Amino acid sequence: MVLLLSGGTEVTRGVIVDKFLEDHPDWRHLALEDLDATQDPDDVIGMGAFFALLVACECAKEALKEGYNVVITCPAAEMLDTVEESFPEELTSVYLGKTHAKTVYDRVIDTARQSVGETCSMLHELVA
What we know:
Blueprint lengths: L1 E6 L2 H14 L3 E5 L1 H5 L9 H19 L3 E6 L2 H10 L4 E6 L10 E3 L6 H12 L1
Parallel strand pairs: 1-3, 1-4, 2-3, 4-5
Helix pairs in contact: 1-5, 3-4
């Protein structure tokens, strides 16, 4: 299974993932936030970032083959299509925060109204 967490801030996603992984040792984390920091300023058409995203998705596929589940944190909406295309069957997407784009995500959790523990409980239910 692949759980995609989008929305919120990088800190919010990080705290939620840390708590989630404490309870799920059979899961691995792929932080797409790290790809944003590695972009080459000379890459005006964004192919370097796209290639890095494809490589990251392949790494997640390898983790799945090894028997792990994967939680992916995604900071940018531009990355969603590629991630969804890479995992058409295994992906459950969750938006953290308020959004009107509920049709894009499988689930929306308003993290302004939920604690980290409550959010993780909701995620546990999704992956059970």
